[in-house]
Inverse folding.
């Protein structure tokens, strides 16, 4: 060996191929598609936890794929020659839940209901199962979190006992499919999809691969047998459905169960619906006997005061297609702090800060030397810009100490120029306000925020030193 070759190593062709194979990306993120050579617990692109899996496990690519001969009845045809069957909904017996689903449950649909722990998901679905069983439908309720005795105790407390309601405590996917084969139900409820595991996939229950396999199998059973399946889903700290995002893509309907533990009111919203609208909201109330429907929630978010109090104004918000009167309250306290506090509950804090700037610039209402607190009655959240006018009037009333009449209702979006812009469903909002006895609506017809203030305080006595709008 020559001196120049000392310490050198000759690599064969097979060694080079092995090195190339090692540097290939063998792991991929199920959320954004980011690839990496080795496994990591957190995606380096979208920063999601537990979404990085092996590429072979995720894609399932085969080395050789042979084409399959397509039968004549399955051959692709022009879309103009296809006759679509009408989608029929069968009511669950709970009108508020049917409103969210678009009229009821569709045969073969996969419905995902998510929500925080203890909000009442199992109670609502047990009520749905009881109503369906009472209509002579065989219902299979699979509890993967509780025993059959615990489910029986809740059912006896809420009056959901029925002979057609069958309970099974299973955490294995194959056992659940076997229960479906043995019972042959018309409705299946699985509580919950994150606690069911399949022996065909490695990993613990609730992992991305397990959730994908369990959801895909149950949805395939629903489509093949034209069987509706209701799935309960856990949520993360951010309120998102736990598990891979693929779960929300697979199902037909995604409903979110919302509610504050401090109040008994609950909302069910449709985030995705292939068989109906996604702007409907169902209202429920948690009671000692279970969950009850709230068909007319108009008076839930209004105070019961007899005399007018400064710092309050009523608006009409749209929850889906339902107009909902909500009272906005504001409190302004003088302060010597260099940075006054801005506290908002139930409304967007950034929106409140913008409205305070508009009031100070356009209407000469100074709030820079006061702590401002804005809140809604009943814990409801106002996320639409239609509540801008009510927030501004409530703050102006709190600053000047002049109450707004009980018969006044305000809705409209406020621009930075101080103009009131029209909002959607204006006629429906005005009709609901008139039904509840509000005879003085203030909306976009007023023009500007200055004229809206003048109209709101036109019939109220003024104290000395208070500017006249």
């Amino acid at each position: 060996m020559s001196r120049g070759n000392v310490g050198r190593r000759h690599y064969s062709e097979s060694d080079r191929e092995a090195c190339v194979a090692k540097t290939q990306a063998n792991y991929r993120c199920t959320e954004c598609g980011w690839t990496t050579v080795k496994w990591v617990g957190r995606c380096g692109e979208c920063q999601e936890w537990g979404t990085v899996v092996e590429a072979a496990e995720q894609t399932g690519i085969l080395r050789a794929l042979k084409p399959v001969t397509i039968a004549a009845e399955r051959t692709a045809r022009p879309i103009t020659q296809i006759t679509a069957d009408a989608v029929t909904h069968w009511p669950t017996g709970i009108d508020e839940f049917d409103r969210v689903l678009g009229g009821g449950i569709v045969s073969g649909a996969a419905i995902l209901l998510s929500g925080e722990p203890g909000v009442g998901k199992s109670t609502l679905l047990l009520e749905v199962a009881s109503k369906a069983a009472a209509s002579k439908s065989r219902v299979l309720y699979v509890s993967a979190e509780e025993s059959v005795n615990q489910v029986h105790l809740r059912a006896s407390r809420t009056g959901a006992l029925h002979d057609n309601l069958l309970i099974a405590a299973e955490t294995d996917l194959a056992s659940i499919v076997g229960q479906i084969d043995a019972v042959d139900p018309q409705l299946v409820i699985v509580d919950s999809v994150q606690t069911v595991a399949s022996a065909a996939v490695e990993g613990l229950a609730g992992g991305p691969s397990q959730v994908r396999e369990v959801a895909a199998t149950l949805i395939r059973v629903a489509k093949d047998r034209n069987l509706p399946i209701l799935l309960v889903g856990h949520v993360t700290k951010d309120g998102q459905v736990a598990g891979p995002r693929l779960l929300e893509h697979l199902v037909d309907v995604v409903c979110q169960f919302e509610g504050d533990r401090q109040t008994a009111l609950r909302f069910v919203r449709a985030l995705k619906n292939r068989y109906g609208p996604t702007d409907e909201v169902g209202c429920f109330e948690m009671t000692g006997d279970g969950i009850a429907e709230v068909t007319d929630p108009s008076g839930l978010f209004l105070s019961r005061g007899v005399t007018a109090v400064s710092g309050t104004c009523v608006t009409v918000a749209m929850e889906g297609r339902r107009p909902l009167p909500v009272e906005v309250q504001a409190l302004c306290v003088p302060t010597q702090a260099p940075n006054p506090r801005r506290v908002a509950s139930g409304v967007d804090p950034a929106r409140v800060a913008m409205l305070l700037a508009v009031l100070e610039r356009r209407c000469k209402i100074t709030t820079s030397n006061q702590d401002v607190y804005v809140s809604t009655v009943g814990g409801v959240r106002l996320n639409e810009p239609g509540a801008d006018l009510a927030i501004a009037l409530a703050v102006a009333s709190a600053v000047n100490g002049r109450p707004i009449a009980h018969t006044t209702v305000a809705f409209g979006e406020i621009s930075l120029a101080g103009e009131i812009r029209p909002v959607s469903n204006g006629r429906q909002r005005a009709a609901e306000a008139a039904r509840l006895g509000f005879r003085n609506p203030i909306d976009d017809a007023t023009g500007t925020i200055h004229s809206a203030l003048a109209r709101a305080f036109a019939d109220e006595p003024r104290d000395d030193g208070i500017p006249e709008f």
In short: Residues 16 and 22 are 10 Å apart (CA to CA). Residues 208-225 form the longest helix (18 residues). Residues 15-59 form one domain. The first strand starts at residue 27 and ends at 29.
